[in-house]
């Protein structure tokens, strides 16, 4: 099958390479010429285990190519997948500008029947809104809209579709994926994604509250999380605190405005954004995700070449990702680089390292002090 993927970010590129691995011929389109040029020579814009090797394998087999020109690849496509961003606006509502721009660009150069797959996270009613745009352009009979929301673990395939032929095509496109498929309306598929996100956020908020109780009562969050996580109705994956950890750091330091902080770990950028928004001067390091973070985070957030370098002149070290190499750093050297020997460990990665013998004040999450 010939597939066009619009948007070469994380979702677009991982899906493009996944479908190429299944045997489809995938043309990836992005308006960022620099990104396309790097992908052309096998350079990934982010780190994900095995993806760089998969990219080069698919390029060698001729199953994936990259372009900035949609018109050059859309004519041969049986389906097009929209994988662009939908960031929140100032009012918190998702900004669908890129989704509509992608659809309009496809509409302008469309000359044959096409299945348009929406992979971006969009609110309920977006499929209908896209259908209306194609109708207004006089091409409503040339396109079928299918909602296939992206779920991070890829442990199920949700297909929202109102047309039988389009459903068969998208079903065939996913042949070879060992995961259950759920067929439903566009509206149900769109809501399923939002409901999943909301439920995960609820679990994280619950974990934050349990962490607070652990700190007040002398319990250990690691033990509590293990006990809860072994319940198959709960699971361990989201029993880690999130934003509350940043709030704890702010409280312990008496505010963050103007304070220089060292951060280890950039797999999850949300806590770094919180720190920056609260006025902190952040210098971060990550052995894998640093390059990708540099493109996403504000320019004022520094990216250091090593974990130790990130600590230069910082008033505290904050651990946000549990890379094992962080445990092997010379903490005597880290102590010399920091202005204040304070470590806030959001992953409890260093809880058993005994940092006190190196002269540190150590603060984990959900661990009584």
UniProtKB/TrEMBL annotation:
<dbReference type="GO" id="GO:0000271">
    <property type="term" value="P:polysaccharide biosynthetic process"/>
</dbReference>
<dbReference type="GO" id="GO:0006065">
    <property type="term" value="P:UDP-glucuronate biosynthetic process"/>
</dbReference>
<dbReference type="Pfam" id="PF03721">
    <property type="entry name" value="UDPG_MGDP_dh_N"/>
</dbReference>
<feature type="binding site">
    <location>
        <position position="193"/>
    </location>
    <ligand>
        <name>substrate</name>
    </ligand>
</feature>
<dbReference type="InterPro" id="IPR036220">
    <property type="entry name" value="UDP-Glc/GDP-Man_DH_C_sf"/>
</dbReference>
<keyword id="KW-0520">NAD</keyword>
<dbReference type="InterPro" id="IPR014027">
    <property type="entry name" value="UDP-Glc/GDP-Man_DH_C"/>
</dbReference>
<comment type="similarity">
    <text>Belongs to the UDP-glucose/GDP-mannose dehydrogenase family.</text>
</comment>
<comment type="pathway">
    <text>Nucleotide-sugar biosynthesis; UDP-alpha-D-glucuronate biosynthesis; UDP-alpha-D-glucuronate from UDP-alpha-D-glucose: step 1/1.</text>
</comment>
<dbReference type="InterPro" id="IPR008927">
    <property type="entry name" value="6-PGluconate_DH-like_C_sf"/>
</dbReference>
<feature type="binding site">
    <location>
        <position position="121"/>
    </location>
    <ligand>
        <name>NAD(+)</name>
    </ligand>
</feature>
<comment type="function">
    <text>Catalyzes the conversion of UDP-glucose into UDP-glucuronate, one of the precursors of teichuronic acid.</text>
</comment>
<keyword id="KW-0560">Oxidoreductase</keyword>
<dbReference type="InterPro" id="IPR028357">
    <property type="entry name" value="UDPglc_DH_bac"/>
</dbReference>
<dbReference type="InterPro" id="IPR013328">
    <property type="entry name" value="6PGD_dom2"/>
</dbReference>
<dbReference type="GO" id="GO:0051287">
    <property type="term" value="F:NAD binding"/>
</dbReference>
<dbReference type="InterPro" id="IPR001732">
    <property type="entry name" value="UDP-Glc/GDP-Man_DH_N"/>
</dbReference>
<dbReference type="GO" id="GO:0003979">
    <property type="term" value="F:UDP-glucose 6-dehydrogenase activity"/>
</dbReference>
<protein>
    <recommendedName>
        <fullName>UDP-glucose 6-dehydrogenase</fullName>
        <ecNumber>1.1.1.22</ecNumber>
    </recommendedName>
</protein>
<feature type="binding site">
    <location>
        <position position="30"/>
    </location>
    <ligand>
        <name>NAD(+)</name>
    </ligand>
</feature>
<feature type="domain" description="UDP-glucose/GDP-mannose dehydrogenase C-terminal">
    <location>
        <begin position="262"/>
        <end position="352"/>
    </location>
</feature>
<dbReference type="Pfam" id="PF00984">
    <property type="entry name" value="UDPG_MGDP_dh"/>
</dbReference>
<dbReference type="Pfam" id="PF03720">
    <property type="entry name" value="UDPG_MGDP_dh_C"/>
</dbReference>
<dbReference type="InterPro" id="IPR014026">
    <property type="entry name" value="UDP-Glc/GDP-Man_DH_dimer"/>
</dbReference>
<feature type="binding site">
    <location>
        <position position="86"/>
    </location>
    <ligand>
        <name>NAD(+)</name>
    </ligand>
</feature>
<dbReference type="InterPro" id="IPR017476">
    <property type="entry name" value="UDP-Glc/GDP-Man"/>
</dbReference>
<dbReference type="InterPro" id="IPR036291">
    <property type="entry name" value="NAD(P)-bd_dom_sf"/>
</dbReference>
<feature type="binding site">
    <location>
        <position position="35"/>
    </location>
    <ligand>
        <name>NAD(+)</name>
    </ligand>
</feature>
């Amino acid at each position: 099958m010939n597939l066009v993927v619009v948007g070469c970010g994380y979702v677009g590129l991982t899906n493009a390479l996944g479908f190429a691995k299944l045997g489809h011929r995938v043309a990836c389109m992005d308006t960022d010429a620099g990104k396309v040029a790097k992908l052309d020579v096998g350079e990934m814009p982010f780190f994900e285990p095995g993806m760089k090797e998969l990219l080069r394998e698919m390029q060698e087999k001729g199953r994936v190519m990259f372009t900035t020109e949609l018109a050059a690849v859309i004519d041969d496509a049986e389906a097009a997948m929209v994988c662009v961003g939908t960031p929140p606006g100032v009012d918190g509502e998702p900004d669908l500008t890129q989704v509509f721009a992608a659809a309009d660009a496809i509409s302008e150069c469309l000359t044959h029947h096409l299945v348009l797959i929406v992979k971006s996270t969009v609110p309920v009613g977006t499929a209908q809104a896209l259908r209306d745009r194609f109708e207004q352009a006089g091409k409503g009979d040339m396109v079928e809209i299918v909602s296939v929301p992206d779920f991070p673990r890829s442990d199920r395939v949700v297909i929202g579709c109102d047309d039988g032929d389009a459903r068969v095509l998208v079903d065939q496109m996913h042949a070879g994926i060992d995961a259950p498929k759920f067929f439903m309306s566009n509206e149900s598929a769109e809501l399923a994604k939002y409901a999943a996100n909301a439920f995960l956020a609820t679990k994280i908020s619950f974990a934050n509250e349990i962490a607070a109780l652990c700190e007040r009562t002398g319990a250990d969050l690691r033990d509590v999380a293990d006990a809860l996580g072994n319940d198959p109705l709960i699971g361990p994956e989201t029993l880690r605190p999130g934003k509350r950890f940043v709030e704890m750091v702010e409280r312990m330091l008496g505010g963050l405005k103007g304070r220089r902080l060292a951060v280890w770990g950039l797999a999850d950028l949300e806590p770094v954004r919180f720190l920056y928004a609260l006025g902190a001067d952040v210098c971060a390091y990550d052995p894998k995700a640093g390059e990708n973070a540099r493109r996403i985070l504000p320019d004022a957030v520094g990216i250091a070449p090593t974990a130790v370098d990130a600590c230069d002149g910082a008033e505290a070290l904050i651990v946000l990702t549990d890379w094992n190499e962080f445990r092997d750093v010379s903490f005597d050297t880290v102590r010399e680089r920091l202005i204040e020997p304070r470590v806030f460990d959001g992953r409890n990665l260093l809880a058993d390292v005994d940092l006190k013998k190196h002269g540190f004040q150590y603060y984990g999450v959900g661990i009584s002090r």
